[in-house]
Write a structure and sequence with these properties.
about 425 residues, six-stranded parallel beta sheet, disordered C terminus, about 55% helix, alpha/beta
């Protein structure tokens, strides 16, 4: 069994392609169920964010699995298969481990080192657990990835060295309309990104913040955390008429702010308005930016800004941590992979020893108990000593990169029964 990742992100595809693949929570769950029912897939989960959609699986066959999972992604898109396939990436086995560790630590994010992805990674694990599609392999992998992410943020100041997506957007906003302090702001949405937006606006001194959401309870909860106001979605037009800054980050699949809606709300207004769209697919109709005095700051524009953001020493520190953790995890996996063979080898040796002892005893019926015990101990000692060095060396050699499978070599040399090797597992199929 090996871990396989098939995905698409801001690094492999333009935003218009990512928008075609954007799924709501129900869509993500349905995709996961379809993947889990695919041939050759034994475990699965889905990591979906505003700029990535990745399917993590444990599979018993590489090529058939890649084709089947890629086909499921294509079915979720309005794009033609030939238009989407070039943007998909595949990571397998150690490459999959490396990729997830980089993702969880923020090294693969649009904002290098950002911490929000850690919670999203935890959410992907929880989703798989809730749907009973995550087993021991992915559970261990994701738990370790979460530890890697936590270590990266605990041992470095990468959170402060790299801007968050919200901070980067508000920095651009300041360039367009001036300082946030004293301005009136509207946040549309009540998820993690909306929470970060509300917190940042509050810290920057926005004089009034309205949290707008379709679910009143969610808006009230978020507003209560930052002394903001909760507003029903039906009152959005009224808030637009008063706002200086609007941040929209919902999980909706349709337009939340249209050109006509904003134009009507701003009828007669002369002050500038900055509209920040952090949703994928986008919440704001692009034509809103054509209105007089209105600036739209979207993910495409932010991606261009952040592409030139230099990697700091803190980010380099995270890279070192990730490299260390990849090596440790991969080493442990390789050592674990030879365990069934070693156990089967020792079991075979024990069987041979027991058989020979019984044969000897049957030929020496007058052997006293003390002599019998001494002979048995001597034979077992010989077997243990003969097996000790091969056992140690196989574990050491398993850590070395290369095409040689020392476990396979042992199986061939000692003619081990494949069923005996496979039997050295727990009921869930893991060693």
């Amino acid at each position: 069994m090996s871990v396989l990742v098939v995905g698409v992100s801001h690094r492999s595809a333009p935003l218009d392609v990512l928008e075609q693949l954007a799924l709501d929570s129900d869509g993500v769950r349905k995709l996961l169920i379809d993947v889990a029912e695919t041939a050759h897939v034994t475990e699965a989960t889905v990591l979906a964010t505003c700029n990535r959609l990745e399917i993590y699986t444990e599979v018993d066959r590489f090529h058939g699995s890649v084709e089947a999972i890629s086909r499921l992604l294509c079915q979720r898109s309005e794009l033609q298969t030939d238009d989407l396939i070039p943007h998909l990436y595949v990571h397998y086995d150690d490459g999959a481990v490396s990729h997830l560790f980089k993702v969880a630590s923020g090294l693969d994010s649009m904002v290098m080192g950002e911490g929000q992805i850690l919670g999203q990674t935890r959410g992907a694990l929880r989703l798989g657990q809730e749907q009973a599609t995550v087993g021991p392999a992915l559970n261990v992998l994701f738990q370790q990835a979460l530890r890697v992410g936590k270590r990266a943020h605990a041992e470095t100041d990468v959170d402060h060295a790299a801007p968050s997506l919200v901070t980067a957007a508000l920095d651009r906003c300041v360039e367009e309309i001036g300082p946030i302090a004293g301005l009136r702001a509207v946040v549309v949405g009540a998820g993690t990104m909306a929470g970060l937006a509300t917190a940042t606006l509050s810290r920057l001194g926005a004089v009034d913040i309205a949290v707008v959401n379709r679910t009143a309870g969610n808006a009230k909860r978020l507003a209560g955390e930052y002394a903001a106001r909760s507003v029903a979605l039906t009152e959005l037009d009224r808030e637009l008429a008063l706002a200086d800054v609007v941040i929209s980050c919902t999980g909706a699949t349709g337009i939340i702010l249209s050109r006509d809606q904003v134009a009507e709300a701003r009828l007669g207004a002369t002050r500038p308005l900055a509209v920040i769209d952090l949703a994928l697919p986008h919440d704001v109709e692009p034509e809103v930016g054509d209105l007089p005095g209105v600036t739209v700051i979207g993910l495409r524009r932010l991606a261009e800004d952040l592409a030139g953001h230099p990697a700091s020493g803190e980010v380099d520190g995270v890279r070192r941590i990730v490299a260390e953790e990849i090596q440790v995890f991969s080493s442990a996996r390789r050592q674990a992979s030879v365990t069934p063979t070693l156990v089967a080898l020792r079991s075979m040796a024990t069987g041979v020893v027991e058989s020979e002892i019984q044969r000897l005893i049957s030929r020496l019926p007058d052997l006293d108990d003390a002599s019998r015990a001494e002979i048995e101990m001597a034979v077992r000692r010989v077997a243990d000593k003969l097996l000790h060095q091969p056992t140690v060396r196989v574990k050491q050699l398993a850590n070395e990169t290369g095409a040689v499978s020392y476990a396979a070599a042992l199986r061939e040399l000692f003619a081990l029964d494949p069923e005996a090797v496979d039997a050295v597992t727990s009921p869930d199929g893991r060693t």
